[in-house]
Design goal:
Layout (H helix, E strand, L loop, with lengths): L4 H7 L2 H16 L8 E5 L14 E5 H7 L20
Antiparallel strand pairs: 1-2
């Protein structure tokens, strides 16, 4: 089944819209155009208190950025072992 991008955009949450806008602004700051295969990498990730300031942004190929972040969105790849030690 094909993805319905129109429906996804119409039903996305306010937080997701804000995140998408922030990613777009980061791409614009670095001068990346639509269709450019590179992605924006944050030197200090947003989830760790980083910002979208130009000094915190760099470009990487899409595959290199995904590998560095463990898959999509900086989350561990599906089926990957957790690095978190659990108490017995």
């Amino acid at each position: 089944m094909a993805r319905n991008y129109v429906r996804e955009r119409l039903t996305e949450s306010k937080k997701r819209k804000e995140d998408r806008k922030a990613r777009g602004r980061a791409r614009t700051k670095l001068g990346l155009k639509v269709g450019d295969p590179r992605t924006v990498e944050h030197k200090k990730p947003l989830r760790s208190g980083g910002t979208n300031a130009k000094s915190n942004l760099t470009t990487k190929s899409k595959s290199a950025n995904s590998k560095a972040n463990g898959g999509k969105g900086g989350r561990p790849k599906k089926g990957a072992k957790s690095r978190i030690k659990r108490k017995a």
